[in-house]
Each structure stands twice: as structure tokens, then as C-alpha cells.
Amino acid sequence: MKQRIIAALILTITIALMISLSGCIEKNENPETSSGTYSIEKLNISNVTTTWDLSFLFDSKEEAETGFEELELQSENINETYRPKFETLDGTALLEYLETEKNFLKSLDILWIYAYAQHSLNVNDEFYESFLINIQDLATEHEIATSFATIKLTSISEPDWETMFDDEPGLYEYRPYLESNYIRFVNHRPQDESHAAFLADISNQRMKLETNAFKKVTNNVTVAGNITLDNGEEYAVNSQSYYTLLSTDTNRNNRKKCYDARYYHLINESDEMALLYSEKAKLDDRYARELNYTDYYEAKMFSSYLTKEQIDDMNSVFKERKDVFEGYNEFRRDKLGLDNLAPCDLFVQLMEEPDQQYNYTDSLVEIQESYSRMDPVFNDIFIETVTGNYLDVYPDPDNGKQPGGYAISMCALQSPSIIFMNYNGLIGDKKTITHELGHNINFYLMGNTVDYLYCGGPEYEMEIPSTFNEELFVDYVIENYDKDTAVAVLSQHIGEYQNYFTFQPLITEFEFEAHKLINEQDNISGAELNSIWTNLSKQYRSDSIGYYEGDSAEWTYINHIYLTNNYYTFNYAVSKAITLSLFKKFIDDPEEFNKNYIEYLSVGTTLTPSEKLEKYFDIEVNRELFEDAMDIVKLRINELNRLEKEDTSNS
Questions:
Q1: Cα–Cα–Cα angle for 170, 175, 180, nearest 5°?
Q2: 371 vs 329, 365, 381, 488, 572, CA distance in Å?
Q3: 327: left (phi > 0), else alpha (psi -120 to 50), else beta?
Q4: Cα distance between residue 385 and residue 393, in whole Å
């Protein structure tokens, strides 16, 4: 459906995947060495870039505005040209429409990327905030103007589809696209053009609420004021400095002051964010019900090719087996020399110097080496990306740079992704780099292999290559770093497993329960949402950690819950479980894995998610997958304890 095309476009590039490269990327033919690694071109660090050059999108604001005006005219022309043809639609007219619409969406994609990227650099720049809103309005207006196509294509009978395919062989190239975007939505479509316009207006309101929420999170929610450290220094707590201090300060009292400042600040912000979130949640579910879903959660499952039962099984496994992490919590407690763990103790790096800084280019060299057993195309894409002004690397919260990180797909231009980062130089930031580069490799392979319309997939697929890259880097560290650093990195990595398998499913469950409450009553308070968050968190969290008695407002700062794409974070847990299964296959047979993995990352949505997993790796998303993931976590914890006990001289 048209509104789904535009929504998928925007959501895929915010956060936050044919068989061969067909000459678009020349694969490095260097042979594999006897050690199982490839001989590849090494990174010349003098060529590394650290800031974006967005001129390949638009040279100036004026050029972008001109592009916007041209798109407005294109939208009008598409409506005028194809509306009459859809009254007696045949295969030839449909093929022409799909190719014309594809070109429009590519241009819209590029325009939106430019505005979104500039807005990320400074959420307080009024031009880009306004321009982003105008683009959202254009997307909505185009959705309305071409709703005739959505209505027609979701109402065609199966025999009539077969007739069109037979009459126009060129349509077969788009068959999977038509199936995934129109044919399967026959029971979830707008009733008529008036209804489509109504839905488009709801979508527009939701997009504007998302933009507003991100601004509030950046400027208010994560800005908790100043604290006085034990050495007398005044320390400003914001989105970046909060995690920096908790990760690096060995003074527990300082960590507690920082944690407490934000903990209570979030509670103070919760009423205002509850108002915003309530408005959004009502619009979310109203939109879904208009399309014959019970709520947005059902819509999300349907669009993801998953079922509620699969996610319920996942959540059950992670709750039932949360005790697997007790061995890790005990390790952390003992390593820090504490009697009990508090929330402020969960982030600090387990190193003698946790605030040790690592040069960005040195980190890139290590990341490149972690790809040594991967197909050489990994290295080709890596070098092109890190030397081509595609990464904006360093934080700048004082000047409005948004927190977090993402990789924006550039499939429309068949180029590397635009990668947004806030690199502080800590050892954990190295994994963030390779995480985003994993997205980039996936997007680049798709963009240079399949048609633009197939460059995407459900979020859990998109997260697989990024989390797989993390596993590669952790193994590289274990094999190449000194013992103490390897212990610290593996420990942090296991802590992230705990995040993936407890915190991320918790967020989705919170959204579901919050939506239910919001739809039952008006005037939801922050305290009510805080209570939902805390009661659910108790089902996932460890009893051995001294969480505070009062209700937490941790939900307020989580960008994902404000996305127009609701229920995002369960995808992280699904993807990590799949990743662990894939990594085991990689360890067992790297050569066979590489062949299948490159194809898997390249085919995009030409196959459904379940078809891809079965074809290339014989994997199903079921309870067994999640049980196996927890077994692998247990093995990693055992590995951590063995590593800690090793004689330094043998490490």
C-alpha cells in the first residue's frame, strides 16, 4: 500500500537489508591464506574522513528547496497521468506506473535523507526542522494524490493478477514487491480515496509528533543539570556525558550522583512526555484499526512477517532464563570489589583505566582486521565508506547534535550509507562503529544487487549484520588484546546480551501495555506510565541488583517509542538470537558461511524473511532459537570466567 511504501522508506533509513554483485562491486579475488584469512588492501589512515560531506545530495539549502519544488510537480504529474489509466488498468500501464513511482520515491528518499541528516547535526536549526516538516507534508500529499493506485492494487483478484502478469512479462520483476506491498494487504487497505486521505493525515500527525519528541529528548529529557563531583568539579549531565561518566569513573559516589541526577530528572519530565506519548499512541492505534487491525501491535506483527505467539515465546524464554545472567552479575560485582551491585555499577568498564581513550583511526584498523575471515567485499565496502566523508564521527551536544547513532541507507544512489555517530573514544565505541558499518555493508550490497524497491526488510533483518559485526569484533579482541582488556570487552559484550534479551523486549511490552491504558482512559500521567515500566521491568531484571524502590521513568528517553514505527525494539532481541546462531555456523565453516551470508545480505525483499533464513541457513524463528541463544550466552559467560583465570603469561 502506498502509505506503507512511504512509511517503510522513512523508518528503514532512520535507525536504527540478487545473488551476485553483477559487476556493481568488483570482488577482491585475493586468495584465502592458510590461516583462513584473506589477503586484502589495508586502510591508509591518512585517507580517513570524520565529517559528512552532504554535497553529493545537495550543494546548498537553495538546491534542496529547488529539488523539493520539482518533486511537488512530479507528484502532480503522476496523479494526472496515471489516474485515468488505473480505471481500466492493464499490465503495461502498471509497469509504467511502478517505474515512474520508483523514481519519485528515490528522489523523495534523497531529499528526506538530506534534511534528516542536517537536522541530526543540530536539532535546533529552524530551517532543517521546518524543511523536514515540509517533506513529511509532501509525502502525505503524494500518498493522498496517488491513493487511487493503493485502492486498486489491493482489490485486484488473484485471477486478474495472473492475467496482468501474463500480458506484461516485465511485471514479473516486480512480483515479490507487489505481493509484499499490495496483494497481501487485501484485508488491510483503505476503503476509498477519502479514507486514504484521512489515513494520510493521521500519518502526518504521527511524523510531526516523532520530530517533536526527538527534539524534547535531546534538549530536555536527557539534560539533567549539573552535579558536583567528589573532586569539586561541576559536571553537566547530558545524553553523552551521562554514559561517559558511568562507563569510566571508578569513583562509585560520582557514578551514583550522575545516575541519581538523571533518574529523578526523568521522573520530573515524565508528565510532559506522557502527554506527548499519549497523543501519539492514540493516533497509532486509530490508524491501525482503520486498516482492520485490532491495534498497532497486530499491524506490526503482520508487516514483520511474525506472529504474536513467536514474540510471546521469545519473551517467555528470556524471563524464564534471566538467571543465566547471574553468573555475569556475580563476575561484575567481584571484579568491582563490591558487596552488592547498584544500577550505577552496570556500565563501568572493567578495566584498570576505564576512561582510556582510543584513537578513531586506530579503531578502524582493528575493525578492518576483525573482517579478515569475511568475504573480501566486506573490506572493499569498508574502505570506500570510512574514507569518503560518509561518517560524522564526534559528539557535539552543546550545539544540538542528536545523541545516538544510525546508518541511513543510500540504496537510491547505490552509495555507502550516511553513518551518524557520537564517538567518545572509549573501547565500547569501537563496537558502535562496526555495528553501524554492518548496516552499511547490508545496504550497500542490496543497493548494488537488487532493484531499489527491494532494498529493505523488517527491522530484525536489518539488525542482523550489525550485531554479527559485533561478534566478529569481540572475537578479534579476545584473540589479539591483552588479557585485562579482553576481559573488559567480553564483559561489556555480555552486558549487552543482557540488554538485548531483557531491556529491549521490556520496551516493547511497555509500549503494548501503555497503549492499552491510553486507549482506556484520558489524561494519562507520567506516574501511571512509570508504574507500568517498573512492574514490567521486575519481570526481566535481576534480583541481585539493588534497583530503587520507587517507580522509574526510564521510558521517557527511549527514542524508539516515539517512532512512527511502533514496537521497534523487540527486533533487537530477535536479530541477536539469529545472529548468535549465524555466528556459530560461521565458526564451524567460514567458507560456506561467507557464500551464503553475502547472498543473504544481498537479496533484500525479493524473498520473505522466513524464506531467506530457511534457504541460506536452515533457521526458524521459534522457541528453540531463543533457547539456543541463551545457551550461547551461558557459554560466553563461561568463556569470560576462563579468560579471567588464565595466567597472564599465557594470554
A1: 150
A2: 30, 10, 11, 21, 22
A3: alpha
A4: 13
Residue 324 contacts residue 637 (beta carbons within 8 Å): yes
Q: What is the mean pLDDT of the chain?
A: 91
pLDDT for the residue 21: 28
Report how far residue 636's alpha carbon sits from residue 204's, in angstroms, rounded to the nearest whole number: 45
Q: What is the pLDDT of residues 522-540, one digit of tens each?
A: 899 999 999 999 999 999 9
Can you state the angle between helices 623-645 and 308-320, rounded to 10 degrees? 30
By CB neighbour count within 10 A (0-12 exposed, 13-18 middle, 19+ buried), where does 264 fall? middle
Q: Are 153 and 189 in contact (CB under 8 A)?
A: no
pLDDT digits (tens, 9 = 90+) for 375-401: 999 999 999 999 999 999 999 988 999
**Beta-strand pair 418-420/391-392:** parallel
Q: Which pLDDT score is estimated for 5?
A: 34
Assigned C-alpha cell, 434: 562496526
- H helix and E strand count, the chain: 24, 5
Q: Tell me the C-alpha distance between 519 and 512, whole Å.
A: 11
d(CA 357, CA 425): 5
pLDDT, position 39: 65
| pLDDT at 37 (0 to 100) | 61
**Cα Rg of the chain (Å, integer):** 25
Instruction: Return phi, psi of residue 19, to 5°.
Output: -35, -45
Q: Which three cell numbers stand for residue 535?
A: 512492574
Instruction: Using alpha carbons, list the distances in angstroms from residue 581 to 125, 342, 399, 432, 484.
Output: 44, 32, 42, 21, 27
Please give the angle made by the CA atoms of 514, 7 and 100, to the nearest 5 degrees: 170
Grid cell of 418 as nine digits = 550516511
Low-confidence ranges of the chain (pLDDT < 50): 1-29, 33-35, 648-651
Spell out the residues 6+ positions from residue 473 whose beta carbon is closer than 8 angstroms to its own: 366, 367, 370, 430, 431, 434
Contact residues for 649 (Cβ-Cβ < 8 A; gap 6+): none
As a whole number of angstroms, the distance between CA 352 and CA 57 comes to 45
Rounded to the nearest 10°, the torsion over CA 614, 615, 616, 619 is 10
d(CA 558, CA 556): 6
Q: Helix (H, G, I), strand (E, B), or coil: what is residue 392?
A: strand
Residue type for 153, please?
A: L
Paired with 234 in beta bridges are 228
C-alpha cell at 633: 550466552
Nearest alpha carbon to residue 451 among 602, 637, 588: 602
Report the greatest alpha carbon distance in the chain. 79
Pair 74, 145: CB distance under 8 Å: no
**Which amino acid belongs to residue 110?**
I
Three-class SS state of 278? helix
C-beta of residue 365 within 8 angstroms of C-beta of residue 43: yes
Q: Are 278 and 257 in contact (CB under 8 A)?
A: no
